[in-house]
From TrEMBL:
Reaction equations catalysed: urea(in) = urea(out)
GO MF annotation terms: urea transmembrane transporter activity
First-listed, main subcellular location of the protein, grouped into a coarse class: membrane
Name assigned to this protein: Urea transporter 1
Chain spans, region Disordered: 1-66
Membrane topology classification: Multi-pass membrane protein
Entry GO terms, CC: plasma membrane
Localization of this protein: Cell membrane
UniProt keyword terms in alphabetical order: Cell membrane, Membrane, Transmembrane, Transmembrane helix
Residues annotated as transmembrane: 101-128, 135-153, 191-210, 222-240, 299-325, 345-361, 368-386, 392-410
Species for this entry: Folsomia candida
Biased composition, class Low complexity, residue ranges: 36-62
Family stated for the protein in its record: Belongs to the urea transporter family.
Annotated Polar residues bias: 1-19
Amino acid sequence: MTSGYSDSLGGQQPISTITGPDIRSEPRKSHSAPARRTYGESTTSSSYFSSRSSSGNNNGSGTRSGGWRKFGESVFGHAPYIGTLIGEMKSPSKWTIVVNIFYSILHSVSATTFVSNPLSGLVILVTMLFCDRRAALLGLVATLAGIASFWPLGLPVQLLVGGSVTFNCFLLGSLLPLAGEETHSWQGIEFLIPLAAVLGIFVVYLWSGFNGILARVDIPVLSAPTNLLALLLVYSGYFLQFSHGPELPSLTHDDDNRIHNKSEDTFQSDCNCSISNQLWSGVVLSQGVIFQVPVAQSYIIYLSVFIYSPILFCQEVLGGVIGTIIGMGLDVNGACSADVCNGVWGYNSLLTAAALGGYFVRFNFHSFLLSIIGAIVSGFMCAVLKKSGVPILGIPFMLSTWILLPLAKMPSSNESSKLRCGDLQRVVVFSTPELNSFCKNKFYSRVKYTQQERSTLHI
């Protein structure tokens, strides 16, 4: 879900990396050219949870305040304190490499839902390991293969920090167990592991190709590599041919739910229940269906989003509600009720609302309305794809975001050309929606710093 760098606005400009965070540090006070970032360095110097301690305060109160600040910056937002600790590790060292790779993997996992927090990534990964070890393992294999393919392609190592490329690897790898009839067992894993590794490499190559085209028009790649390769797998006959058409299990029909440790009663949530229960189940599982986890674990994933950004959490809940309501409204004969309860109608709208309502566009009233429109468009695109028999995957989210994102304008660091607060304004250097929306001076100084950094990235 990323785009990379374009030559717009008079210079090479980093633009929307799906869910990758700001891979640059804060603006420096000196006027010299900024130094190249080291892998694993903090993505932002402050989170929305941090506050400055009084200078020179060495008493117990100051110590406690500093401790709470470190705790906040280790848990909330981008968890910048963790990135700082990793960036300060002695290099080169084999343990440094291992820690940096693990740090990148955690960001790749969390970036699937627009979160850039290693703690959130760890929570999601552990949740998947409890629910479906095969999906988590194959996702990790594909992610490691994708990371290894960065060097032959000559891609900047900075892109690994936010997982803005390799989240596609994890997402596609985690879908592979859905191909078999028995996802409960480890039978056939010796075939799926090398397949996941090959697909992880192909994802990075495809991302590089998509980025070379879409960056010219300032459009993020998003999940295009995953969607393309998944469609190729479906129509090449790798996935089983289901009675309802060429659609991925757990993403389309209730008969095809093959997620480990989910009984029919737990996951499908009694699709003949009341409207309120259908809505609640659909919204909750709109998040869980992305990571193939049931209801209880979906709450945990929502919590991991909340500790990163409350605004993003609210936007994702809103998108899930809109998509689920559209599915319920189009459920004329009751044939889609299982899909409504399983979150199939909600997850694309959830991702679209997050993308347009705070991640790629600065959060304000206008971007809030844009996210609602995007979620509605994404929901109706799901209906069109289901009617035509095409796998849904993340196609509605990808297309609706591509269509509506150009409505937002790219920002400028020039004081005279700043847009009004109500204007739709693109996010260039990624941080939490709270920082980009409510810390205007920091936002514009980061834009200026990003433009100055052109000479050091050499991309």
